[in-house]
Amino acid sequence: MKKKSIAIDMDGVLADIELQLIEHYNKATGKSLSKESIEGLSEEDAFTDRTLVREVLNADNFFRTLPVMPDAIESVRQLQENFEVFIVSAATEFPVSLAEKIAWLGEFFPFIKWENIILCGSKRIINTDYMIDDHCKNLDYCMGKPIMFTAFHNVNQTHHIRANNWKEVVAVLNQTVS
């Protein structure tokens, strides 16, 4: 029997980009943003200096040094027992991130085969049974079943199944195979 497939986003789902972006933004601007203070805001409203954000996201080692989301490693390993797992990142917007993301995955998710890593532009072409992402712009075009991973910018979105953390992702997906 063929396993069902899952596309898993990197930034904001596997990697805690919020924490690192907040730290870099605060250091550069002198502001004191926190995860709590930006909850419910769009990315544009939370980080108003968009030129600075692009500079930060294009800086060497930004993506390579992102912290791993709690329980992500163990959860993805567990999901591989019942699903074919693909890591899918819209990385081409920030070309410097391509090699960094591959190296990051090699360090933290070495059990993901190279052929199951997709670095792309638009995710509209991804055709998996499930997609786990923090952005509606990706989930709204999902060909399978979308699962929204909670992030500061999507807490007010209610039109997708939501998972607040990796334990909830595993619970949602395990319901589909039992």
TrEMBL record:
Q: Which domain of life is it from?
A: Bacteria
Q: One GO BP annotation here?
A: pyrimidine deoxyribonucleotide catabolic process
Q: Which GO terms describe its molecular function?
A: 5'-nucleotidase activity
Show the active-site residues: D9, D11
Against InterPro entries, the record matches this protein to: 5'(3')-deoxyribonucleotidase (IPR010708), HAD-like_sf (IPR036412), HAD_sf (IPR023214)
Member of which family? Belongs to the 5'(3')-deoxyribonucleotidase family.
| Protein name as it appears in the record | 5'(3')-deoxyribonucleotidase
Organism encoding this protein: Flavobacterium pectinovorum
